[in-house]
Amino acid sequence: MREIIKIEGGHRLSGSVKVSGSKNATVALIPAAVLAGGPVTISGVPAIADVDSLSEILRILNCEVTEKNEHLIIDPSGMKNVPLDADVITKLRASYYFMGALLGKYGYVRMKMPGGCYLGPRPIDLHIKGFEALGASVEYEKGCYTIRAEKLVGTKIFLDISSVGATINIMMAAVYAEGRTIIENAAKEPEIIDVATLLNNMGANIRGAGTNVITIEGVNELQGCYHEIIPDRIEAGTFVIMAAACADEMRINNVIPKHIEALTSKLQEMGADLDIGIDSILVRHKAGMHAVDVTTKPYPGFATDLQQPLTTLLTQVEGISEVRDTIYAERFKHCMELQRMGADIEIFNGKCTIKGPSRLYGDRVTATDLRCGAALVIAGLLAEGWTTIHDVYHIDRGYDNIDGKLQALGGVIRREKID
Ligand code: EPU
Fold first, then answer.
1. Is the pTM of this model over 0.90?
2. pLDDT tens-digit profile of 143-155?
3. Phi/psi at 80 (nearest 5 deg)?
């Protein structure tokens, strides 16, 4: 049965909220855990649908998975490298991390094409190029990849685009490879450092994660370990934007402020009142914020995942803003939904312009992807009357207990089942 979220707008938020563990780190850490010989305990795991899907894939692989509070214990001791052709593979993008992990561990993997949010074309050619450079052969037939290697040998791999997914996947495939692998033009996102930290705790030898050159010296054995996930910078950013849009005063706890500096600087440029602490950000209501231009870039630039929630805030400020997405040129479906609610937005290829301020009105809208959903939740909080958001499964893939967190802040939000 499908679910909808209903939000009554106009209630100003206040109080504090704790950010959960990073979704985009978690979805790579879980597949990375299968590289170990013994149990891996991951702490701070967010309660999101993507974690449920990955746990289901682990069980298909005959791994033991125990969930306790915010801990996930993964025991790959009795693992079987069966073909991954179940429907769950296509529920999310991150199932592709099993390619690197299983190739690294067994030299063989067979799996379906992964799914995930539609943000325009999302090729995985760089992942494949990396596996091939390490000595693997890759076949794609009837929607299924077969990747095999007699042995993987370290080499130099230059990524044409600094892809997060390709960097992590190659790192996982290379941990057991013979000799040294060097990834050049590697992505620098904090989630990559988190995955390298887990792998190093397991016994891998990875240096340079967080810079654009990552060096992996192959090892023969990896053991189980304990790992705590970093806070979710995109969830943190979403709440900071939400607070600037509709809170009297909101404290966002469990944040690494450095991870969202591109956002906080942009908000300060708009005139927002932010008090940035060591691991929290306090946002106070500020009248008279003004328009800004934003261009998304790989980390440490402005995150594409925050472009959509920011657009909603930009509908409320004085002047004309331009948002350009250089990572995903088609990531503007939220603009159509915001238009329906009364926003004055023009969409072009790869960018949109927003004329504000506009009054928003509650309507029936659709979360076409995860961050579109976040943009619509903020719009619903701002709008006059009730907003009904459909396809909320996208939101549940990435936001841990969004209903509960908003209710605690004074938001009026409820969930209903529909046929
Ligand atoms: N790209 C290629 N070829 C490849 C891989 C990527 O051309 O083989 C292109 C992509 O099409 C895109 C750019 O390179 O234009 C960057 O893509 P990247 O590989 O970095 O993205 P990803 O790993 O597929 C992750 C996050 C996304 C986030 C992007 C960019 C996960 C599971 N997903 O995707 O998160 O938008 O990095 O930062 O980590 C989200 O959380 O809502 C989300 C979509």
1. yes
2. 899 999 999 999 9
3. -125, 130
